[in-house]
Specification:
By secondary structure, this protein is of the alpha/beta class. It folds into three domains: 50 residues, DNA polymerase, domain 1, CATH 1.10.150; 71 residues, 5' to 3' exonuclease, C-terminal subdomain (DNA polymerase, domain 1), CATH 1.10.150; 69 residues, BRCT domain (Rossmann fold), CATH 3.40.50.10190. It is built from twelve helices and four strands, in the order H-H-H-H-H-H-H-H-H-E-H-E-E-H-E-H. It has a four-stranded parallel beta sheet with strand order 2-1-3-4. Helix 11 links the parallel strand 3 and strand 4. Helix 4 packs across helix 5. It is globular. The two termini are 28 Å apart.
Length: 216
């Protein structure tokens, strides 16, 4: 959910103290609870609560990925978010609908159907909604539906920031190169994805060209 100020150490403290057991419990935290944790004062508690509040309206794909559904990574989460446009629609998806999404494999489909048929997971979704988690739906923009893959180290922007630029412009970020890939963004010391892109004849761009594309 990309919650700032919520690193592994803080999560461990929240778990060890019994304040949270799952994702939904983050959205029930109170300031007085956080202040009981070692290292937290007024300002840091306020910052964490604000970051949690801000995360309620993250992109739908982030929430789908954050649910931890087996065989559903970031790329599959983006495809599902673009297709269903709401968590309610996804939770009620039928097998034939999932089979119609290019890029969603058999294992992923089985995991998705199993996840949303589980009573505990149904309660989780309802609890998240009741606590104000309302993810933003499909973004449209100049990169609508375009698929990007990153390889190598970018110099002036982090991989996460670059991915956000793509998603915010309506595009999709994938971890692997395929015939469906539109752009491969190459940084320093690119790996095998660069070679595969050349073999498949996929457009390869450097960091500067990438910025021009997403900012156009």
């Amino acid at each position: 959910m990309d919650i700032e100020h919520l690193g592994p150490e803080t999560i461990d403290k929240l778990l060890d103290s019994g304040l949270i057991k799952g994702l939904e419990d983050l959205y029930a935290l109170k300031k007085e609870d956080i202040l009981k944790l070692e290292g937290f004062e007024e300002k840091s508690a306020d910052n964490l609560l604000k970051a949690i509040e801000d995360s309620k309206t993250r992109e739908l794909s982030r929430l789908i990925f954050g649910l931890g559904i087996r065989h559903v990574g970031q790329y599959a989460a983006q495809l599902l978010a673009n297709y269903f446009n709401s968590l309610d629609n996804l939770s009620q998806a039928m097998g034939y609908q999932l089979e119609g999404i290019k890029g969603i494999g058999k294992e992923s489909i089985e995991s998705i159907l199993s996840f949303f048929s589980d009573e505990d997971n149904k309660k989780l979704i309802q609890t998240l909604k009741a606590r104000g988690v309302s993810p933003t739906t499909k973004k449209t923009g100049p990169l609508d539906g375009k698929q990007f893959v990153f390889t190598g180290s970018l110099e002036n922007i982090s991989r996460e920031e670059a991915s956000d630029l793509v998603v915010n412009a309506g595009g999709i970020v994938s971890s692997s190169v395929s015939k469906s890939t539109d752009y491969v963004v190459v940084g320093k010391k690119p790996g095998s994805k660069f070679e595969k892109a050349k073999k498949l004849g996929i457009k390869v761009v450097d960091e500067e060209e990438f910025k021009s594309i997403v900012e156009s």
